[in-house]
Each structure stands twice: as C-alpha cells, then as structure tokens.
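WARN retry 2 of 3 for item q-0093 after timeout on previous attempt; input resubmitted unchanged.
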Amino acid sequence: MLLLLFETSDGRYALDSNEIVEIIPYLVSKKIPGAPPYVTGIINYRGEPVPLFDLCILSGGASCRHFYSTRIILVQYPLDQENDRLIGLIAERATDVFKCKATDIGSSGILLGKSSSPDAIKSDKNELVQLYNVTRMISKDVVRGLF
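OK item q-0093 returned
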C-alpha cells in the first residue's frame, strides 16, 4: 500500500493513497461565514464547491503555515452509502510517500474512549506515524452542514 506522509502541528501522519482524489497546491479560499475555525473556506474545483479543512487546527494547533510544501489533499468524504462529497484537507509538508504492506500497520496502543486505537506504522526513518482517519476526525454533521 502507498501512503502519503504529511505533517500537522502535532506530528507526522499518513493517508492511504487509495483515499486521495488529487493533491493540489495550497490556494487561497473564500471564507464561509459561521463555519467552525478549522473550516478555512471553500474553493472551486472543476466547477464543484469544495470546503477546506485545516488539519493543523483540527489537531489542536495554529493554522497550517503556507510553506511551498503545504498542499490541499482532495478526498471523497462518505456521508452515507450512496452519497460522497469532495472535501479538501490542508496539510503541511505533504510531499513524501511511503510504501508498506498492510501487515506493517498495527495498533498504536493508545485508547480513544470507546473507539479503537488509531493505526500506526513505523516509517523508513524509524518514526511512528499515525494513519489519518478522515471520518473519525471530521464530523459528518459538519460536512452535511456545509452542503
């Protein structure tokens, strides 16, 4: 499996490349009045409105910095069985990929209440990288409210 590595204010994460529609450079977005602080705005992607979520703010930090390597990761968000919506995830240093086997992914051993612990993997730099679960981090109610 191929994973995209990126950073937020609290560390390195990975996202399965099968979940990614496209990765585009950071763009200035149009603000959405009344949206939560981690919803930085909306962009027009091939005629479709796409809300942007700042992963640095979602992880409890300040807004993602506008580095040359800051990217918008476009993913399909599953609202229900027949309805997916395109959303954008803003992340820093989203330029590296890591190849691994599904068997290399294991539990981090950290419990999050009643939910299962997040999956983690050791990268080739011998660091622990957490797999990013979009539906766990971004509420369906927030996504529904934006559309």
